[in-house]
Amino acid sequence: MGHHSCCNQQKVKRGLWSPEEDEKLIRYITTYGYGCWSEVPEKAGLQRCGKSCRLRWINYLRPDIRRGRFTPEEEKLIINLHEIVGNRWAHIASHLPGRTDNEIKNYWNSWIKKKIHKPGKAAQSATPSGFDHVQPVFSTADQFDAILHHNLPKPSAADPMFPPPPCPLFMFDVSAGDSGSASGSSKEEFVQEVATLTSDLWNPTNQQDQAMPPFLAFTACMESNYLPPLVDGMGGMVPCCVGEDGEASRQPFEKQELSEWVDSRQYSSPLIWDQVAGTSLGGEALPTAPSTMDAMITSFSSSLSRIN
DNA sequence: AATGAACGCAACCGCGACTTA
DNA sequence: TTAAGTCGCGGTTGCGTTCAT
């Protein structure tokens, strides 16, 4: 009992890492990678257990780690995600590129302490400027799980707990494409392409001829108090606006049409379609970096004001 | 200036999940 | 099938720093 099996060897060092140890670990990992963490300390010449090496690398030494204060957008995302999935820090961290679960967990615990000590102040800081109107759809993890497992009745306008989205939403699974391929099926590539494509489609000269592109609709969701819900295991969500009849700028973006649009780009296979409004709720927010989201919101906000 | 409390963060621990022989 | 090894996650601890009195 006591120590973990990988740490049973004698003379393993504990506690803070020295710069020399860091250097050894960095040099080893960047040269050979880490196939098996339990082998890393010996091969790297470290008196540590593999677990400690892994932790040090993942939480501190990794080159893609993002340090410094959390931005208001990151904070907002953490708060919303935590409201939905609870203390699943790794899940939350997966939505914040460069942030570790440990960092988010520490941040949250510090924040929670503030909240406990100063309820009023903390409640205010929970809604950073510019996003005060955006609310998560589910207020408890139980609600979320129930919907995920289709145990709840369909959402209806009469149910204040599950307000219908302002526009029909569709979701699809891009997780199948996570392994990546030449056709560009990773989430990151998907997000990038949607952003690019949407920008191309939606501009002052041709907007009368195009259906509302997904990300504009996504922005519209945010503008109208609707944050697409999150579901574990589903890769992404593209909310699609089906507007009122007549107006070309609100021309329905048909399910079939969107399906073909996504299929043509081979984002995932097979696609799992579900018309959210009126049938079920689900999907996962697209894993965009805050900067990307900022750019999109900025880019689309003027278009949005034109159609409203 | 001294000192104790509070905070922030890195690291550890235990456990469950997964892998492999 | 199962047991050992390993990984990854969430909870927790410990310690250096900052803040308040």
TrEMBL record:
PANTHER family: MYB DOMAIN PROTEIN 55, MYB TRANSCRIPTION FACTOR. The keyword DNA-binding applies. Keywords: DNA-binding, Nucleus, Repeat, Transcription, Transcription regulation. SMART domains: SANT. InterPro entries: Homeodomain-like_sf, Myb_dom, Plant_SW-associated_TFs, SANT/Myb. It comes from the Eukaryota. It comes from Musa troglodytarum (fe'i banana). This is Myb-like DNA-binding domain containing protein. GO terms for cellular component: nucleus. It is found in: Nucleus. The keyword Transcription regulation applies. Residues 9-61, 62-112 form the Myb-like domain. GO terms for molecular function: DNA binding. Residues 9-61, 62-116 form the HTH myb-type domain.
